[in-house]
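Feature request disguised as a bug: please show the residue count (61) next to Cytochrome c, class I in the output. Example input:
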Amino acid sequence: MPLNAPQSLTPDEVYAVVAWLLHQNGILPADAAIDAQTLLAVKMPNRGGFVSDPRPDVLSR
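Example output, currently without the count:
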């Protein structure tokens, strides 16, 4: 969202920005279409690099 105009982008504009960012990072091809369904299928490069935090004072979600 533009800093001076929060919530001013339509959902389609947000998906377009996300698609552009993913393409710029080599995750999606230039002609990829992104919407609520196809975004769920995107495989992020570091998807296996996350570990849980075993500390008892940290909330797990």
